[in-house]
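Example 3.2
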Amino acid sequence: MKFLNGLSKPTLIGLLVDLLTIYFNDKNSSKLRELVAVYLAGYEPLQEKLGYNGYRQVADTGKVEYCEVKPKNTQKKKDKLDGGGSFNDYTPERLEEDIRNNPTVLACGYVNGKLLYIIAFTFECIKSKMENLLKRRFGEEMRRRRGEYLRSASFSFRDYRDCRTLKVVYAYENIEDYREYIAKDLYKFLEKHLSQS
């Protein structure tokens, strides 16, 4: 603490910016990217390591609504953001829980740690995609042995673009600066949203 007290305000700001940049770009941890999305979408964070990332209470019904954040960060133009995400170590049991709770999925896109978009939709929009991936891995009955998982159940913008609950929570106003980092169909969608805002 003594060290920090001796630093000037510009030095402290520079230190904080450097620290945030490192963590926003960390390939092994997306916690900071998830927290930003949770707060911007109006949820409270959940601290558990496994499970949903956030929640909020719906005023008129009193029900709890959960959110699941799926952030993607790219540093290369060839690894384009496609509005997608991935459920890791996915199981038929987790699918049942997601169907029951129907969490809001927050698909986020970052380039070099800079947030470009947050797109929200309910899980029901990708339910059939997740079911098909599990059936491909475990068979039609989706029976699995203990310790077996679908390592990565991925989706993209194409899987939910026609969903009735789809909405843009956030879009960077100068998104054209990052056009080369974003898949064409997603870029057109975001560009249209920004032109109508």
